[in-house]
Amino acid sequence: MNFFNETASNYLQFVTMVLEIVGITLAYIEIRYKPLAKRTENWILRLEDKIKDFAWKVVRNNMFSTLITLFVIVIFFFEVPYFAGFYDKILPAGMKSIQDIFYWLTFPIVLLFFLGLFVIFLSEFIAWLNRFSGGHAIGALGVVVTLVGLIGEVYQVLTIFYK
Q1: Which of 12, 16, 80, 109 has the fewest beta carbons under 10 Å from its own?
Q2: What are phi and psi of 84, to 5 degrees?
Q3: Around Cβ 151, how many Cβ atoms within 10 Å?
Q4: Phi–psi pair at 126, nearest 5 degrees
Q5: Which CA distances in Å does 74 have to 71, 78, 138?
Q6: Which long-range contacts (CB under 8 A, 24 or more apart) does 120-126 make?
Q7: How many Cα neighbours within 13 Å face the side chain of 101?
């Protein structure tokens, strides 16, 4: 399997272009429209406290601890053996529908786990961004978003070189 796939590179272009446009727009708002940037930054600061409080509630919640346990069980005892091809050796061909049902039933566990992690990491990212920017959070967010888009562009360039 080749890491540098031309089809993936083509589809990635749609995402990176949007990220770069959004990032440059945010940086432009920071430079050109200071009052709008300041109002948006104040909104983000208020939102930061709410998200941090919610993230701490998620971390302290026993249901999230149970969800982490279920996630580990599902991944290590069911998903990894599936990807290793273990189920292909023990399940007859007619049992594939049961296997698919099982994976669709475990999907909400995986989704909720990643949603909880996203809330926790989002709160920390917003806090870091506010400390890092020193009053220019919108411009810093624009730079970060543009940087993520540029990482996608680097993948596209490497795909062209290794084709």
Answers
A1: 80
A2: -80, -10
A3: 12
A4: -65, -40
A5: 5, 5, 39
A6: 120/55, 120/58, 120/59, 122/51, 122/55, 123/48, 123/51, 123/52, 123/54, 123/55, 124/55, 126/44, 126/47, 126/48, 126/51
A7: 4
Which span out of 72-76, 81-85, 119-123 was modeled with the highest average pLDDT?
Answer: 72-76
CA angle 10, 11, 14 (to 5 degrees): 105
Q: How far apart are CA 151 and CA 145, in angstroms?
A: 10
The closest alpha carbon to 127, from 57, 59, 53, belongs to 53
> Residue 55's CB: how many other CB atoms inside 10 A?
19
Q: Residue length, the chain?
A: 163
Q: What are the Cα distances from residue 110, in Å, to 71, 115, 144?
A: 6, 9, 27
Question: pLDDT per residue over 88-100, tens digit each?
Answer: 666 666 666 766 7
Burial profile 62-92: b = 16 or more Cβ within 10 angstroms, e = fewer: eebeebeeebeebeeebeeeeeeeeeeeeee
pTM attached to this predicted model:
0.59
Do 160 and 12 touch, CB atoms closer than 8 A?
A: no
Contacts of 98 (CB under 8 A, 6+ apart): 91
